[in-house]
Amino acid sequence: MHRTRTGMAAAVCAVLLALTTAACTEEDRAKVGDIAASATAAAASKMGEVKDGVNATGDVKAGPTKTDGDRTVAEVTATNPGDRTADYTVMVNFRDGEGGLLDSVVLDIGGVEPGKSGTGTARSNRTLPGETTADIARALRH
């Protein structure tokens, strides 16, 4: 029961934080930060599983965010400048209107032919409050 209350408090605080920073205690703000840090660590771990990947952050762009049910999504486009078909593993950060990190996710875009683009959808792990943006934290071509 305590975990449920803590999770609910963090979620409520996140919404209030988007409206006013004075609404939450330092402890509540820390819980919201812990949630984002946990998601970032999980995403970084998944990126670490990619073998023989090369930095391809410049090949990948995140589109505008929108709401899909209770999640935030962004279309991600990978353009392959190489001479053979490639797969991309992409870490996407969702940020609030002030640039604060809210969530991080990893997605795969497979089978992008040379000179072509492929797309995938980054979907937040949880409901995100307020206006959000998506940016590419890291991308690997493999």
Fraction of residues in H or I helices: 25-40%
CATH level 3 topology:
Immunoglobulin-like
Molecular shape: globular
Strand content: 35-45%
User: How many distinct beta strands?
Assistant: 7
Give the rounded overall mean pLDDT. 81
The radius of gyration computed from the alpha-carbon positions, rounded to a whole number of angstroms, is 17 Å
Question: Notable features of this structure?
Answer:
142 residues, alpha+beta, Immunoglobulin-like, three-stranded antiparallel beta sheet, Lipoprotein
Characterise this structure.
- This is Lipoprotein.
- Keywords: Signal.
- It is a single chain.
- This protein has helices at residues 2-19, 26-48, and strands at residues 54-55, 60-68, 71-79, 86-96, 101-112, 117-123, 132-141.
- By secondary structure, it is α+β, with helices and mostly antiparallel strands.
- It has a single domain (2-141), classed as Immunoglobulin-like (Sandwich), CATH 2.60.40.
- It has a four-stranded antiparallel sheet with strand order 1-7-4-5. A three-stranded antiparallel sheet has the order 2-3-6, with no helix packed on it.
- A hairpin with a 2-residue loop joins strand 2 and strand 3 (71-79).
- Helix 1 (2-19) packs across helix 2.
- The longest helix has 23 residues, at 26-48.
- The chain is globular, with a radius of gyration of 17 Å.
- Mean pLDDT is 81; it is low at 1-22.
